[in-house]
Amino acid sequence: MKLLLFSDVHCSMEHCRELVRKSSTVDLVIAAGDMGLVRKGLRETIEALQGIEKPTVLVPGNSESREELEEACQGWEQATVLHGSGIELLGIRFWGVGGGIPVTPFGDWSYDFTEQEAARMLSGCPQGGVLITHSPPKGAVDISGSGQRFGSQAIREAILEKEPILCVCGHIHESAGNHEKIGNTIVVNAGPKGIVWEV
User: What values do phi and psi take at 170, rounded to 5?
Assistant: First the structure.
């Protein structure tokens, strides 16, 4: 199965147009958060992405809440928003947890969760499925421009326990487009250009 993976579009219409174009060649699309920018521009971005006619699974980033994303996606038949929840599509089980994990230093506008909150939301993740998170796991595709690792320990532990075949994330822009492994799981920091990935 071919997947189109992306994250951190942040209201870029140019990236949206390119993602819609790329989506015609895949079976399913995964959006790992941050469609909007600092809680603005979400509706316009989702409208631009509605040209994607393939099943699309989205999680909120830290730039939009689950409620805001669900509301923006109303009327987009192909879209499913996950946050501490899962779905089975085309024979694959998906589990999603959005938001900034751990809590970011960005302030009240950022949609963030503690490691403990994240661990609770990750507890239902199925064995061997596809995990979609906005934040990366600690120690994989989580290196910032300053060289620091800002990934989540809770996400890392969930990967080690549940062994998803793939974890799709974003959030740390400097690691966009990269992939690494934790155990047998490939972790992809998707980025706004979109990556076609086969599972």
Answer: -160, -130
Domain count, the chain: 1
Three-class secondary structure of residue 71 per DSSP: helix
CA–CA dist 91, 49 (Å, integer): 24
pLDDT value at position 38? Answer: 95
Q: What is the pLDDT of residues 108-164, one digit of tens each?
A: 999 999 999 999 999 999 999 999 999 999 999 999 989 999 999 999 999 999 999
Looking at residue 11, what is its pLDDT? Answer: 98
The domain in which residue 45 lies consists of 2-198
CATH number at 104 reads 3.60.21.10
What's 151's DSSP letter?
Answer: -
Residues paired with residue 89 on neighbouring β-strands, in sequence order = 92
